[in-house]
Amino acid sequence: MTTLRVGARTSPLARTQADWVAARIEARGVPCEFVGVVTTGDVDQRALTQIGGTGLFVGAVRSGLVRRTIDVAVHSLKDLPTGAEPGLRIAAMPEREDVRDVLVGSTLDALGDGARVGTGSPRRAVQLQAWAHRQGIDLQVVPVRGNVDTRIGHVGSGALDATVLAAAGLRRLGRLVAEGPDGRCRVVSAGEGGTPEDGVVAQLVPTDVLLPAAGQGALAVEVAEDNELPELSAVDALDDPATRARVTAERTFLARLEAGCLAPVGVLASLHASPPSGTGDSQAQDLTLDAVIGRTIGSDVAHPAVPELLQVSLTGAVSQARQLGTELAEQALSRLGHDLRR
Ligand SMILES: NCc1[nH]cc(CCC(=O)O)c1CC(=O)O
């Protein structure tokens, strides 16, 4: 039996995700070992919007697959460029974690005029500005990046009133605790307890306020197409078809817009039972794709001109995930007059 070398970045989240995948492969009787890979995104501390380009975090991990220093790569799907990578295939998209963003440092209704919210994500910035506009408050969105603790540190020091992170990452790290009504929760330090008194006040943000990034909360487990180790069938078995359908629709939408992970685009696919059709097909599932596009592309994240959002939505058969993504993108592009594509 060959031990599969499972590669990922060395950040705490990447390591936790790789261990999560490795444990599931091992549950199928195949031993694994972790191989850490350092990437450009980890060593370059400039704002992500400045370094530019997609796939910053995944390039080095992928080249490990090609050079065969690893057999399996684990990525956050959100960080994976939408284009297919020649010679590689996504063997599994395991069951998705929480898709929502979480506001850390404040609840939504405690944000008042002039509140400083840190995010380097144009998607989050434009949706927060639009939400604040609807509430009649004036938010200051401050561009920040860095890991969870750096960002939460800015809240603790008073430099920011709040920051926004993906709930999935915090959950995987065991740092999102004490969930109560309206998604109120706490974010605790690594290793800290989980009583309601610990940590920082936080709130899971409903998706009608913040639509997530394509693939948020999901993992991509990637392998080289020409790696013929029989042990890799344990990796294919981790695929969750519902997650794959949803993520495929979201990523096709993003790809058709020719928008990368830094575009002001939120998109979420959800599965639900189809309305009765009279054909007796009780198993039929529909997929609804909701998306928002900020029209402030190219402008300063901190000071978007107008918090204007285009909202689009489409429902169809789950088997048509790719087509739904393309169709919704075409609808959005025609309404935008193609100005997203520069
Ligand atoms: N862009 C960085 C990134 N990529 C994946 C996650 C978290 C896990 C996920 O969304 O699946 C994060 C951090 C964040 O956005 O807060």
Automatic annotation (TrEMBL):
<keyword id="KW-0808">Transferase</keyword>
<dbReference type="Pfam" id="PF03900">
    <property type="entry name" value="Porphobil_deamC"/>
</dbReference>
<dbReference type="GO" id="GO:0005737">
    <property type="term" value="C:cytoplasm"/>
</dbReference>
<dbReference type="Pfam" id="PF01379">
    <property type="entry name" value="Porphobil_deam"/>
</dbReference>
<dbReference type="InterPro" id="IPR022419">
    <property type="entry name" value="Porphobilin_deaminase_cofac_BS"/>
</dbReference>
<dbReference type="InterPro" id="IPR000860">
    <property type="entry name" value="HemC"/>
</dbReference>
<protein>
    <recommendedName>
        <fullName>Hydroxymethylbilane synthase</fullName>
        <ecNumber>2.5.1.61</ecNumber>
    </recommendedName>
</protein>
<comment type="function">
    <text>Tetrapolymerization of the monopyrrole PBG into the hydroxymethylbilane pre-uroporphyrinogen in several discrete steps.</text>
</comment>
<dbReference type="GO" id="GO:0006783">
    <property type="term" value="P:heme biosynthetic process"/>
</dbReference>
<feature type="domain" description="Porphobilinogen deaminase N-terminal">
    <location>
        <begin position="4"/>
        <end position="228"/>
    </location>
</feature>
<keyword id="KW-0627">Porphyrin biosynthesis</keyword>
<dbReference type="GO" id="GO:0004418">
    <property type="term" value="F:hydroxymethylbilane synthase activity"/>
</dbReference>
<feature type="domain" description="Porphobilinogen deaminase C-terminal">
    <location>
        <begin position="246"/>
        <end position="333"/>
    </location>
</feature>
<comment type="similarity">
    <text>Belongs to the HMBS family.</text>
</comment>
<dbReference type="InterPro" id="IPR022418">
    <property type="entry name" value="Porphobilinogen_deaminase_C"/>
</dbReference>
<dbReference type="InterPro" id="IPR022417">
    <property type="entry name" value="Porphobilin_deaminase_N"/>
</dbReference>
<dbReference type="InterPro" id="IPR036803">
    <property type="entry name" value="Porphobilinogen_deaminase_C_sf"/>
</dbReference>
